[in-house]
């Protein structure tokens, strides 16, 4: 069966696996055992990728095909030797390729993956699935794997044999291999005889790899001449390789003839994800633009979603010829979690990443894919359970949308979900439309607060009067939120309004009696306010009677057009110089502590109280003080004087 011979000139060398590979192999063998048949999916998937890569290289050098242009994968079983062999005539590997691909893990997210392992087998098996199992899954069922490979364009005697028992090391030997491509021989472990059964293996291949676009073939034994039902002679059929799959690119097939299972398996093939996708959208566009897109929303975020250098994007084909993986030009960054295939008839076959950067075709494809994705998410949002699962994984990325994509701002805003005082729950499930539907009569703005944490937002003194009036407030505490509200200033003609800023005016919602009472308090308190202003001097921009507090004695707010506290913190943490922003100090005239201070006749003591009150308010707002020691000293001094 094998077309290889040992290369007498070559020396066998032994190499150690990278430490992570050893760990991954151990984990895989133990955690994925109950799902062991997936090794076939992984190896057939790699063979199909190898065919795609060869086709791509042959676009510029068709001699790479040699006399072997029909790309395919073959699977053969040998009961006596107890081996299962997968043979492709794809791109193959050089010695260097073999060492770097089959001895190390060169993937972004590797560190995060290993740091998240828990030792719990079922949890870890899911993590491995998400991370991608790939070639090493062969060791779930094999106690020895032999790979023989010859790279396209290399001579027969430049082939390589890689062999390992999946423990600490592997060997590499130069060999002679007559044909191009890769042959992977799995020496099955004791007890894995089911993978020697043609029927079983064929069934698994059909289950997982029906969508593979090249033929997956099994050997069909010779059929001797026989007699038909009516005694007629049926000619002998010689032994031949026969495909068990449809071998057409799945996205070129008609939607109506594709099953969910096929879509799911295809997703796993292109994404290297373990889970089924959450949803997909398959579209053929004809007319001004001609392309087919098959876009998937994954269930789980990849390990490297927050890594700026991580690769993402669609698999690009031009007229069914694979061109590149991770073509990021067709999706905006805030949709970088999307997976899928784009097959364009308008791009040239020799298109490169550089050319893609700024062609009209790219722009129109990007527009099409973006709009398709947003529609898909909108549809998904009708199923609140599924959409919540999506939001919990990818919501933070989608929140980058309004800043990045002005044209689709309103549509993206409709997809956003927040925590709010309606539920007071950390789960972000409130849409802006939900919020608007609950707005009180006379309310024409969407209220929000941005804080460092959910607890800080939820317990902020700024919410006191809004809670009392039954006005809902969005509780924002993700890192991206301050950035989001800078760009998302309104939705459905309703302005978004920070409750921590000076411009908040709830008087429209108050009845005449309340307004009158407020005016009276302001007048009665005018002299106390003047004392506060003198006592605090340049520490504050202004001092006012507050109408937003019920339980707290005081709070600070930023002037409507000043930079918000949260924005200042973000800029400071990014090492940027921020101009000093003085707070407006608001006093709750009804609070007993404030009444006590107002009665204080000693101006020195009044100043101390004012400063303690201001520091308290700053602490509640920012979570820290510039000079905490002085605050503690002043507070202790006052406490002592009260204790006397
Ligand atoms: N049959 C093959 N022909 C040519 N190259 C191959 C073949 N099988 C594996 N490789 C090379 O080895 C690399 C590693 O394969 P492996 O399956 O472990 O990872 P992957 O396919 O890149 O991603 P994943 O681990 O998510 O499946 C591949 O990217 C490819 O370069």
**Uncertain segments:** none
The biggest sheet, with number of strands, parallel, antiparallel or mixed sense and barrel status, is: 10 strands, mixed
- Estimate what percentage of residues fall within beta strands: 15-25%
Q: Bound compounds, please?
A: adenosine-5'-triphosphate
Instruction: Tell me the span between the first and last alpha carbons.
Output: 99 Å
CATH topology of the largest domain: Heat Shock Protein 90
Query: Which outline best applies?
Result: elongated
At the fourth level of CATH, the homologous superfamily of the largest domain is Histidine kinase-like ATPase, C-terminal domain
Average pLDDT works out at 91
> Under the CATH scheme, which class of the largest domain?
Alpha Beta
Q: Judging by the overall fold, what is the CATH architecture of the largest domain?
A: 2-Layer Sandwich
Number of helices: 21
Computed Rg: 34 Å
Determine the fraction of residues in helical runs and give it as a percent range: 25-40%
Indicate how many domains the architecture comprises. 4
- Count of DSSP strands: 25
Structural class: alpha+beta
